[in-house]
Structure formats: C-alpha cells, structure tokens
C-alpha cells in the first residue's frame, strides 16, 4: 500500500519537528508538570518515601513570615538596583554619545565588570568590603573616617550587594542606552534646533521618549535577571541572612539545605504567579508607550 | 612460551588491580587538621589489612550541602560520612545511615565511650540505644585567652583596683563580662572578647546555647517537642540579653563572628578571649606558644553548659554491602584503644574514650586537652531531629536579629519559638492545633 504524497509530507514534517518537540517536552513541559505535582507532596531532596499532603505546602508559604520577607527583600533589591543602573547607565550613555578621542578605550573599560563571572566579582568585593582588612576600610581609616561593617551591619548588607550589582550591570544599561541614542535620527535634533528648543526640552520631548521603548526593554531584562539574584547573596552573606535573603537564596535554603523539595516548589509557583502578573502589567505599559509613539509618528 | 608468560603476567596485574580497587573505602569529612590525621591512620590501616582508605576533605562551608546532595543519588560517592551530630536524625529516619545497633556494641566497648558522646554522636533518638554512628571526633567549644596579658603586672594591678579581685581566667559569665570590659580598648585596637555569632551555618547557635541553658532556658521539650515556654522563658530571654550585653566588648564585626573570624581575631593579637571549637586551636598553639592558655565555658548560678561539637562515623546505606562490611572493619580498627592513643597525638584530634580522656598522656599531649576533657561533662546539643536544619536556619535569623538590635530579645525568642513549633508541626513531630 503506497502512502499519498500529502501523508508522506506530514510524516516528514513530524520527523523534522519531532525530536525538538520531544526534547522540549522532556526538558520543559515534563519538569513543569512534575514540579506542580511535587508542590503538593512532602518530597525530600535525599529521597525516601513521599506522599501527597494537599495544599499544606501552600499554607506554610503564606504562614511563615520568611517567605513574605524574601519577596520584599527581592523587590527592594530589584527596584533599587535597576533604578540606579538605569539612571547612571543612561547618564553615562549621554556623556559618551558624542565622538571623542579614546571613546573605544573608555567604552571597553566600562564594559569589563559586566563580562566577569558574578561569583568571582562577589568574592573580590567581599575582600574589598571586609570590615577589618578590606581595602575600602583601610582607605577610610587612612582618611580618619569610620569603619562601616559593609557586609555584616544589617543596615548596610543589602545596600552593599545593591552597589556591587550596580557596579556590575550599569554598563549593560549604558550599552542599551547608547544604542537607543544612536537610533534617534539626527534630523529630529536639527528640526528642534531650528525651532530653538532648549536643551532640556529636547531631552524631555525627543531624547527620552524616543529612547523609552529600548530602555523599557532593558529594564525588563535587568529586572528579570535581578529577580533571580543568587550569586552575590550566596557569596557575601550566605543564603540564610534575613537582611539579604532574596527569593533564590530562600529557595536554595529550602530545597538544598532543608531538603524540602515540595515546600520549595510550592513557593516557586507562588512567586511565578506574582512575577507573571507584574510582567503582564509592565508589558501592557510598554505596549501603550509604543502605541503612543506610533500615534505621534502618524 | 614467552608470549604465554607475558599474557599471564598481564592478567595477574589486572586482576590484582581490580582486587585492590575493590578493597577500598572512601570517607568524606570536612577540611581540617583531624581529617589529615585520619588519612594518616587510614594509610596505616591499609598497610595492615590491604584495604585502602581515602579521606576526601570538603571545605566546611559547603560540607553539609555536598553530603546531602550526594545522598540524593542512588549510590553515594562515599562509604563512610563523618557527619555533624545534628545530622543523625535526618540520616537515621530518611534511610541514609546504616543502623549499627546490633553491630556497634560487638565492635566497641560502649562503656568506654563518654556517655555524652554516645548520646549525642551515636544514638537516635538520644537515649534510645539505637546506634547510627560510631564516635570519631568528640568536640566541644572552649576559650583561648592571652595568658601574657592576664599575667602582666600592670594589667593585674589595674584590674584589681577596678574590680576588687585578681585577674584570672573567669569561672562565671559575670567575671567574664568584667574581664572583657576591662580589655576593651578600641583606640589601642585591643578588644575584650569574641564570641560565636556568625550567620553562615551554626556558629551563632553554638555561641548562644551556653547562655540559653545556663540561664535556665532550653530549645524545647525533648519528648513532646513543645517549644513555647522553654525557648522564650524568662531565663532564656535573660540569657540572650546577657549574650547581647557582651557585644560592646567585641572587635568590629563581632556581632557576626564565625569560627574563622574568631581565629583571625585571636591570631592577629587584638583580642583577649576568644571562643571556638578545640580542634581549631593547634595552629594558635604553634604560632603563639606560651602567650596563650585555655579555659572552659563559664557558668552562671552554678550551671555550666557547653555546646557539643564533633562528628561520628556513619556508614552510607547507599553503598554496597561489601563496602559497608569494609567500613565496619575500619571503624572497629579505629576504635581500638591503641589506635585511639595514637589518634589523640595528632593536632586537634579528640577521643571519646573515657580512659584516655583521664590519662596523663592525653593531658600532656597539648595545652588545651585538660580543659577539653573537663568540658565534656557539661556538653549539650541542639536538636538532632530530621528538620534540624530548618530549626537551625530559623534560630540563626531570629538570634541574629536580636544581636543586631533590630528586634528586642523577648520578641526575637517569641518569634523563634513560634517558628520552631510550626516547623515541628510541619514535620509531624508536634500535633497541629
């Protein structure tokens, strides 16, 4: 019995798509469904018998204060780090937008922190910020200033981690901002100059709105990345410090130290729902910005 | 003929290699002096029996994580793990540690083991006579102090003038406080004391426990697992307040001082009295010699309690029966008195053998051994239930907040007691209300 050409084409299509699809199901879909299942069990990392315990894990997530606290810490970290990075990165991009001698060298130097592994950076900064023998306090001591305990003082710990993140990721914001600035057509500025628009007005009415979509994208990328902050926290204060315990650090503590796979996955799903909700709001805002842009263009 | 001889020889070599590989055991332990000593003894064991012993050392900060991640496999990479005392409940109830109840008393004279070591390092539940580990490194916290400062004539006179008594190693926490206050001179970069307050693993818990117990509090009822009224009792709050009251006499960063911070604080010559586990002291003795001496954790109102440390040999349930048999052979060999006599001669290696602990040879082996032996009768431990790590993590967070001054002591202990009870309920140890 011969197969019709259409049917053969179907098989061929499936033959091409099939392996990738199988891989996707095995690596993404199955773990997703399996982890939803796990969130309703008392599964332990080290194995052994586990059983379904209904929604008890979700009850504990809402009952234990530490889960809410980690969410607040992460939100504070994301907001402060990304806001500073955006502001400083955009300012740097404005300063570097024009051509000048040695621009390539300055740009390359500024991009170095972003290219280093986070764990290495964390260990390096841990040495710099050490309260007793860190170079920063040595310098402050030399100037007759105080000796802040950057990585042990509860009021300074999170700020120190934010500053390291800023040091590392501001170049990323600068890079995207530079791309956005370079994409603005020169004739718009020429028209503004003919209209004798002030520098502030040009910035407010042309530069900022035209950079906004790309900046928004950069914020989204950085925010999702910062939300996963783990390396710096792990290396500098450890995963169990309430002042710096981010979502990822708490998940590590719950799953890999306490062995509570069920509880950990339940918490992940609560966070996932929250993040999806927030991302949707942000994306809608971005869409509205783009729609406004298109309207202006028309 | 020559070809046949070569083939036979090659087969013999390969077979011998295979046998040698089969007759070996792997031990996982933390990276420190006693592990080096254990490897040396392991080599002796290999010479005697032909069973190779490899001691793999893992840095302390990641030791626990790596061990339990490895236990998640079908077969562990180690045959013996030298696990912290608190791990035993998890190891025993989750099918990780081989039960040694029938075997251990046949291999070791249990009456020769210090009862506190047997209770906390080997049994689960404590006092049940069900064994899941054999004693390896018995340990306790104790103080090292600057003997040269204490013996300085000017310092002695100044101290007597201020406090009306002689400057000497303190017996009580109240005396300790005065001495710490006396030596606290930040302008001269000289500090009174450094206690255990670190947030990384368990150091703040080990540092707080002597205050908790000596002031009449406890972690909870060991039978019913109730925590309220024990951990947040008036005594426990007073103990935490006293502990917190010592923080002004510590170096900068002293409210977050782990084992390594304290070693550094003492080694750099800035701090008068430092608390740490005894196996960390050999380096200090080598580098500072006659300048230092040791004293046991002070008492309060006649009550002296000391945080237990140390680890026992546990055999992995996730290794082959043959390897388990070899592991038992090694443990039995190591526990012999003649090997224990050798063990205590290595830096930082401590025995649980009562006969040796009271021997002159042990006392003479190092300047801290007498203090160590005297400390053993006062040992107590943290919870060793399967959820010990969650309990520990919660304790680190709440005690840390109290020391940092972000929460009042009473509120910190109330919150901690509540969280501990929730963890106990979640683990099924305490009935859900």
Structure, described:
- The complex is a heterodimer of chains A (298) and B (433).
- Chain A has 298 residues and is mainly α.
- The longest helix of chain A is centred in the last third of the chain and has 37 residues, at 261-297.
- The radius of gyration of chain A is 25 Å and the shape is globular.
- Chain A has a single domain, classed as MetI-like (MetI-like fold), CATH 1.10.3720.
- Chain A is built from 12 helices and no strands.
- Chain B folds into 2 domains: 2-139 and 309-380, 3-Layer(aba) Sandwich (D-Maltodextrin-Binding Protein, domain 2), CATH 3.40.190; 141-307 and 384-426, Periplasmic binding protein-like II (D-Maltodextrin-Binding Protein, domain 2).
- Chain B has helices spanning 2-22, 33-49, 60-71, 88-93, 104-107, 115-122, 147-150, 153-163, 173-183, 203-214, 234-245, 259-267, 282-288, 321-334, 337-343, 354-357, 360-365, 369-375, 388-404, 409-426; strands spanning 24-30, 52-58, 80-84, 134-146, 191-194, 271-277, 292-295, 306-315, 379-380.
- In chain B, strands 1, 2, 3, 4, 5, 6, 7, 8 and 9 form a 9-stranded mixed beta sheet that branches.
- In chain B, α2 links the parallel β1 (24-30) and β2.
- In chain B, α10 crosses α19.
- The N and C termini of chain B lie far apart (84 Å).
- The chains are: A mainly alpha (298), B alpha/beta (433).
Name the helicity range of chain A: over 70%
Instruction: Report the uncertain regions of chain A.
Output: none
Q: Calculate Rg of chain B over CA atoms.
A: 24 Å
Strand content of chain A: under 5%
The SSE order of chain A reads: HHHHHHHHHHHH
CATH topology of the largest domain in chain B: D-Maltodextrin-Binding Protein, domain 2
- Secondary-structure arrangement, i.e. CATH architecture of chain A: Orthogonal Bundle
Q: How much helicity do the residues of chain B have?
A: 40-55%
Computed structural class of chain B:
alpha/beta
Can you summarize the main beta sheet of chain B? 9 strands, mixed
Number of helices of chain A: 12
pLDDT averaged over residues of chain B = 92
For the record, the count of structural domains of chain A works out to 1
> Which pair has the most extensive contact?
A-B, 30 and 33 residues
Radius of gyration of chain A: 25 Å
Number of strands of chain B: 9
Q: Low-confidence stretches of chain B at least 5 residues in length (pLDDT < 50)?
A: 13-20
């Amino acid at each position: 019995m011969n197969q019709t050409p259409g049917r053969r084409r179907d098989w061929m299509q499936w033959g091409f798509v099939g392996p990738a699809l199988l891989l996707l199901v095995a690596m993404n879909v199955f773990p997703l469904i399996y982890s939803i299942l796990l969130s309703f069990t008392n599964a332990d990392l080290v194995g052994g018998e586990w059983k379904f315990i209904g929604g008890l894990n979700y009850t504990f997530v809402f009952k234990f204060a530490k889960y809410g606290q980690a969410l607040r810490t992460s939100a504070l970290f994301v907001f402060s780090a990304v806001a500073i990075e955006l502001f400083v990165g955009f300012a740097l991009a404005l300063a570097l937008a024009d051509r000048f001698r040695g621009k390539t060298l300055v740009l390359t130097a500024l991009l170095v922190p972003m290219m280093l592994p986070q764990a290495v950076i964390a260990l390096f900064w841990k040495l710099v910020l050490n309260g007793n023998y860190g170079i920063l306090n040595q310098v402050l001591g030399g100037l007759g200033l105080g000796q802040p305990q950057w990585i042990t003082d509860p009021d300074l710990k999170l700020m120190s981690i934010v500053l390291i993140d800023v040091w590392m990721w501001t170049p990323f914001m600068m890079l995207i901002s530079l791309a956005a600035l370079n994409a603005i057509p020169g004739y718009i500025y020429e028209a503004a100059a003919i209209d004798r628009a002030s520098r502030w007005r040009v910035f407010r009415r042309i530069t900022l709105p035209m950079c906004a979509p790309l900046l928004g994208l950069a914020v989204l990328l950085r925010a999702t990345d910062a939300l996963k902050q783990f390396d710096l926290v792990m290396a500098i204060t450890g995963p169990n410090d309430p002042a710096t315990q981010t979502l990822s650090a708490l998940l590590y503590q719950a799953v890999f130290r306490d062995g509570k796979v069920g509880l950990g996955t339940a918490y992940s799903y609560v966070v996932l729902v929250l993040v999806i909700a927030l991302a949707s709001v942000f994306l809608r805002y971005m869409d509205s910005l783009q729609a406004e842009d298109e309207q202006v263009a028309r | 003929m020559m070809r046949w001889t070569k083939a036979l020889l090659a087969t013999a070599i390969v077979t011998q290699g295979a046998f040698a590989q089969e007759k070996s055991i792997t031990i996982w332990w933390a990276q420190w002096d006693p592990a080096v000593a254990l490897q040396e003894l392991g080599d002796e064991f290999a010479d005697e029996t032909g069973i190779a012993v490899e001691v793999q050392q893992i840095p302390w900060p990641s030791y626990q994580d790596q061990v339990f991640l490895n236990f998640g496999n079908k077969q562990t990479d180690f045959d013996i793990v030298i696990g912290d005392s608190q791990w035993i409940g998890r190891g025993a109830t989750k099918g990780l540690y081989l039960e040694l109840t029938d075997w251990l008393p046949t291999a070791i004279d249990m009456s020769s083991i210090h009862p506190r070591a047997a209770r906390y390092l080997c049994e689960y539940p404590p006092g049940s006579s069900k064994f899941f580990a054999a004693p390896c490194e018995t340990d306790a916290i104790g103080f090292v102090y600057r003997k040269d400062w204490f013996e300085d004539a000017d310092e002695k006179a100044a101290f007597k003038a201020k406090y009306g008594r002689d400057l000497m190693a303190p017996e009580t926490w109240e005396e300790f406080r005065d001495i710490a206050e006396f030596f606290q001179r930040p302008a001269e970069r000289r500090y009174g004391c450094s206690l255990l307050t670190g947030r990384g693993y368990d150091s703040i818990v080990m540092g707080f426990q002597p205050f908790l117990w000596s002031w009449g509090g406890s972690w909870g009822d060991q039978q019913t697992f109730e925590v309220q009224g024990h951990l947040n009792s008036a005594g426990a709050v007073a103990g935490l307040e006293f502990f917190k009251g010592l923080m002004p006499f510590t170096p900068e960063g002293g409210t977050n001082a782990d084992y390594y911070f304290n070693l550094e604080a003492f080694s750099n010559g800035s701090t008068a009295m430092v608390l740490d586990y005894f196996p960390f002291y050999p380096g200090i003795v080598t580098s500072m010699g006659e300048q230092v001496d040791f004293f046991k954790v002070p008492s309060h109102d006649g009550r002296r309690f000391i945080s237990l440390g140390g680890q026992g040999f546990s055999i992995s349930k996730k290794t082959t029966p043959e390897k388990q048999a070899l592991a038992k052979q090694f443990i039995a060999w190591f526990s012999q008195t003649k090997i224990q006599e050798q063990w205590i001669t290595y830096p930082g290696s401590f025995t649980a053998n009562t006969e040796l602990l009271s021997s002159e040879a042990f006392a003479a082996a190092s300047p801290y051994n007498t203090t160590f032996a005297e400390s053993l009768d006062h040992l107590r431990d943290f919870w060793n239930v399967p959820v010990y790590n969650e309990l520990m993590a919660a304790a680190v967070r709440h005690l840390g907040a109290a020391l940092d001054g972000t929460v009042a002591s009473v509120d910190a202990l109330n919150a901690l007691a509540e969280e501990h009870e929730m963890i106990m309920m979640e683990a099924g140890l305490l009935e859900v209300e």
